[in-house]
Amino acid sequence: MRILSIDDEPEILSLIKRALINEYEVDTCLRPNEELPANLAAYDLIISDVMMPGEDGYALVERIRDEVTCPILFLTAKNMESDVIYGLSVGADDYLRKPFSVAELRARISAHLRRENRENTKIIKEGDVWFYLDEKAIKVNGEPCKLTKSEYDIALFLARNHGQIFSKEQIYEQIYGYEKDGNDTAITEHVKNLRKKLSNLSADPIETVWGIGYKWKKEE
Would you say 217 and 162 are in contact if contact means Cβ atoms under 8 Å apart? Predict the structure, then answer.
């Protein structure tokens, strides 16, 4: 598996490479404006810093998101919830706050890659929403609905368990397979973006159960 790590601090790139090199093929990029690899689609996961000179991580991810379908993990020193929400909205799947532990970084990466490698061989229909599992794509009323990896997996998890209510923590653990510090903000933002995209295609299958979490409405 190939991982691309993008950061303007050589020490961080070196730390990440040393932490992952025994399990993955790791490429690093110090100046993404000048030396970003041409074939980004070849990577199984991308790690990007947020605060970088010139083009920051937000702008970078927004620029490359159409080229890649792999999970993107932000590393950020920012603590404002609005910064995290914005990062998820431009296409990141998850984020890890600096300073971070090597063990947590490995666990997050392993969870995302394990999710990517789940075997998918069917088509699932839930009302007007069709899940094409081989392609990891959905159509609503026959129209393609472009989702991020996390949005797609949340939709699929809820749809497969339609009628059941799940807390944000439960959704995080099911999607990412990582129990420590399951992040409410990430799930809230992913669900908000997912519902907006489905609504744009006249579908509203996800219901908020106040004080508890979310569920996919069961067809009558």
Answer: yes
pLDDT tens digits for 111-152?
A: 888 877 654 446 788 888 989 888 889 999 889 999 998 999
User: Mind listing the pLDDT tens digit for each residue in 27-76?
Assistant: 999 988 888 888 888 898 999 999 898 889 999 999 888 888 889 999 88
The C-alpha atoms of residue 15 and residue 167 are separated, in whole angstroms, by: 35
Degrees to nearest 5, angle at CA 64 with 61 and 70: 85
Best CA proximity match to 40, nearest among 82, 77, 3: 3
Residue 20: C-alpha distances to residues 33, 64, 125 (Å): 24, 23, 39
- List the domains of the chain with CATH numbers: 2-116 (3.40.50.2300), 123-216 (1.10.10.10)
The strand order across the sheet containing 45-49 reads 25-29, 2-6, 45-49, 72-76, 94-97
Dihedral sign for Cα atoms in the order 190, 40, 176, 17: negative
